[in-house]
Design goal:
By secondary structure, the chain is mainly β. The protein has a single domain, classed as Jelly Rolls, CATH 2.60.120. It has helices spanning 12-15, 19-35, 110-118, 223-226, and strands at 59-61, 67-70, 83-87, 90-94, 97-99, 132-141, 144-155, 168-175, 182-188, 192-199, 202-210, 234-243, 249-256, 263-271, 285-292, 294-305. The strands form two sheets. Strands 1, 2, 4, 5, 7, 12, 13, 14 and 16 form a nine-stranded antiparallel beta sheet that branches. A seven-stranded antiparallel beta sheet has the order 3-6-15-8-9-10-11, with no helix packed on it. A hairpin with a 6-residue loop joins β13 and β14. The longest helix has 17 residues, at 19-35.
Length: 306
């Protein structure tokens, strides 16, 4: 309610015709203050959370359900017995495939509104939460072979400073619950294969090699120069993570060509503690999939004891 006190201002009579506008504006602000703090995306909640499923090796997940798995604040809140969407808003399961969000979210989508506040920089003001997609298994694995098929449907050339040459299609092993400690293996948008260690939030390159031709340029007018990876074809990646008898950890990356003509060994590296002076990451931990600043589809995830 608007109220004026004290001596009458000579300009108020001329403003009386605007009173309805002021009243409406005040009501709108009041409604917004009440409504929008309650307007939250459909994150998992304890009432609908699922217990983790017991899986055995070899474990295969083929995405053969029609559903959407939403991001949740913790693994204990996810509604899937197999997966936790840690970041990226949604895993869409459709037509026997898994997908990140494809394209731009509608302005009214709760996840767009949430990410516009939580991380506008990396998600184009909430339009593309899939720019930071992280999918984590609920099962833990020690010495493990991981495989997954990836299909790049589109790029999101965000102005974010985090869109850079290190983005890519990645498999994650030895993943700790907070996501700050793990091994990455995969392909980067600059056309290189990469093995990386992340420990306590710090990244260390274990091995890297050029695989796909072309010169990467983050600001090139030609979109193909900003992502040298093949588009609209299926790429299958494999990572092997093994703790050796001396306590070191060896990580290997292989790729199955788009034509399906067999596996190509890309990189091998052994972590003996030389990366930042940090100890190798050992023990049974979570696995998963990561993609950056792309619309991606997935198929035929495999985890197998080694």
């Amino acid at each position: 309610m608007l109220a004026f006190t004290g001596a009458r201002s000579p300009i108020l009579p001329s403003m009386r015709r605007y009173y309805p506008f002021f009243v409406t504006l005040t009501l709108l602000f009041g409604i917004s203050a009440v409504f929008f703090p309650m307007f939250k995306p459909p994150r998992g909640n304890p009432a609908s959370a699922s217990a983790a499923a017991a899986v055995v090796s070899p474990y295969k997940y083929n995405f053969y359900v029609q559903d959407t798995l939403y991001e949740s604040g913790s693994m204990n809140q996810t509604t899937s017995p197999y997966w936790w969407v840690n970041s990226g808003a949604k895993l869409i399961l459709f037509d026997g495939k898994g997908e990140t969000i494809q394209g731009t979210l509608p302005i009214t989508d709760p996840w767009r509104i949430a990410y516009a506040t939580a991380n506008p920089r990396d998600t184009d003001n909430g339009a593309h939460p899939q720019n930071i997609f992280r999918l984590v298994s609920r099962s833990t694995w020690n010495n493990v072979r991981l495989e997954a098929s990836y299909y790049i449907a589109a790029d999101n050339f965000s102005p974010s400073a985090n869109r850079n040459a290190s983005n890519g299609l990645l498999l994650m092993s030895r993943y700790s619950m907070d996501g700050q400690t793990l091994y990455y293996a995969g392909l980067r948008v600059d056309g290189t294969a990469i093995l990386k260690k992340k420990i306590n939030g710090a990244y260390y390159t274990m091995a890297q090699k050029k695989i796909f031709p072309g010169t990467y340029s983050i600001s090139a007018a030609n979109g193909t120069s900003r992502n040298l990876l093949p588009h609209n074809v299926w790429l299958r990646l494999r990572s092997d993570t093994v703790t050796n008898s001396d306590g070191s950890v060896t990580v290997k990356l292989s790729m199955q060509s788009p034509l399906g003509s067999g596996w190509q060994s890309l990189l091998t590296a052994t972590d003996r503690g030389e990366f930042g002076g940090t100890a190798p990451i050992t023990g049974a931990r979570y696995t998963g999939i990561r993609t950056d600043f792309m619309d991606v589809k997935f198929d035929d995830f495999l985890a197998q004891n080694l």
